[in-house]
Amino acid sequence: MFEDPASATLLIQKKRMLSSPCSLDSQSKNSILPCSAKVYLTCPSCRAVGVFSITATMRNATSLTQHRPWPLPPGPWVMAQTWHDLLFAHWPVPMAALRSQIPASLEIDTFDGAAWVAVVPFRMSGVRLRGTPSVPWLSAFPELNVRTYVKRDGKPGVWFFSLDAANAVAVKIARRWFNLPYFRAEMQIQKHGDWLEYNSVRTHHGASPAELVCKYRPTAPPKSPVPGSLEHLLTERYCLYTANASGRLIRGEIHHAPWALQLAEAEFAKNSMAHAAGITLPNTPPLLHFAARQDVIVWPPTKITWPRPPTICER
């Protein structure tokens, strides 16, 4: 179920500008599409279109908040990044199949009684700290995650079983700063017509083997998911949850414009990503959506307060 994206206050769209066909050297490892971008902001009341730089988009991102389920976090955001060419491939799984892998203090989010697991390949660009420029060798790389959906204290979020990335420095920083299960991988993205071909092989020492070989493309115009729909539950999330080595729960808050999702099709030649996390996917076609672009700002991770032990009178 979707609504027209013009109902949002601002609609962020992507337009690639290529000096050559958008394709990659098939021998290039950890490669990404050689594309640059402008951001088009459309006013739904007057239909006027303005072109902004990525920096301006991030600076003005906090003005679009009506779609958020809770207010923006206090304090300044500290990181910006842009996600491109995302495939959301979702499978329903029994909640009990995930319970042992997720802290008991987190409630697993379900839709019609089923939990959902996603395999999400995409590419990153513009990864940088606030007030600093992008660094070519650090700021752009493919990424691939396996995730499900949880909530705590009324805040629905994402729980990651794994995040593979083709940048060893970014993996090390994310593991230490966010306590997230990042893994090094060799990854390639190629574009043939409107198909994106995505190959990833995990190379992280000591990690479970994991591989994804697939191709995907959008098949319909972009639309925003309607609140209350399955698509909305699976994508409109503004925080992540993880835990540190001592088991302390951590929340990382983010912000972005409403998603503009497109129905998609995909072919999977190899997909052991969920299996590597100890999850068995059903032998059924996944629910598929494509998103061309999302500009994101990130706040520092914060530890969630331990529950107060009951007093003698409360026992």
Provide an overview of this structure:
The protein has about 325 residues and is mainly β. The chain is about 10% helix and about 45% strand. The protein contains 6 helices and 18 strands. The longest helix has 10 residues. It starts with a strand and ends in a 12-residue tail after the last strand. The N terminus is likely disordered.
What order do the helices and strands follow?
EEEEHEHEEHEEHEEEEHEEEHEE
> Main beta sheet, described?
13 strands, mixed
Could you tell me the mean pLDDT? 84
Bulk shape: globular
Q: Under the CATH scheme, which class? A: Mainly Beta
Question: Rg from C-alpha positions?
Answer: 19 Å
Oligomer: single chain
- Please provide the count of β strands: 18
Question: Main traits of this protein?
Answer:
single chain, 315 residues, mainly beta, Acetoacetate decarboxylase-like, 13-stranded mixed sheet, 3-stranded antiparallel sheet, 6 helices, 18 strands, globular, disordered N terminus
Summarize the structure.
The chain is mainly beta and 315 residues long. Helix content is 11%, strand content 44%.
Secondary structure topology:
Layout: E1 2-3, E2 11-17, E3 36-42, E4 49-52, H1 54-60, E5 79-93, H2 96-99, E6 107-108, E7 115-129, H3 136-139, E8 141-152, E9 155-165, H4 168-177, E10 182-192, E11 195-202, E12 211-218, E13 224-225, H5 230-235, E14 239-243, E15 249-255, E16 262-271, H6 273-276, E17 287-298, E18 302-303
Parallel strand pairs: 9-10, 9-14
Antiparallel strand pairs: 1-13, 2-3, 3-4, 5-7, 5-17, 6-8, 7-8, 8-9, 10-11, 11-12, 12-16, 14-15, 15-17, 15-18, 16-17
